[in-house]
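I am hoping you can look over what I have pasted underneath with an eye to the fold:
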Amino acid sequence: MKTALVIGATGLVGDYLLRQLLSDDQYDKIHVFTRRSTGYSNPSKLEEHLVDFDRPAEWHDQLRGDVLFSSLGTTLKQAGSQQAQYKVDYTYQYEAAAAAARNGVPAYVLISSAGADPDAFVFYSRMKGELERDVEKLPFQRVRILQPGILAGPRSEARLGEKVGVVLSLLFSKLPGLHQYRPYHGRVVAQAMRAAAADTTPGIRISTLGQVFEEVGE
């Protein structure tokens, strides 16, 4: 039996991931580190840690288990500035990953983004690429990075730009040879995270676009 650690459990993918982990017999303990409650209750399996991501010294020692799932993220609109978004999407995730690695957690699964590149001109792609580059250097036994395209699924807040992007990517994916560009439902990405964690091959593996679907046989 395994212990799963999760940051970003209240987002689109994280919510699906948590629900799936709660019904996954491979894991007998799930520790969620979050700023607000997930709303789920399972006294025998789920333990929520309400934490301040700006005060990592208070909780990073508790990042101990078999795998850290990281799906934390925000939008530029929600964050208010690139600097604030970078803090959530890069700093919080990298610091948690580094702490887990120091604590001997053997596996790390990260949701990144298609087009992630530390040398990219676009801020978002560059930020995601920098995170990928830096977590790959951490002393995990296994690192799994998933790079899905546009995410689809129910969200608590309206994202007009994302809705438009989902429609456009769905239409674009109908063209010959472009099926991998279809929207990525949060449920499928969460399944892919669990499948990636189940791969015990040592080293780093990055799943891009269509390969994310292949993780779950879609």
About this structure: The radius of gyration is 16 Å. The first strand starts at residue 2 and ends at 7. The chain has a mean pLDDT of 87.
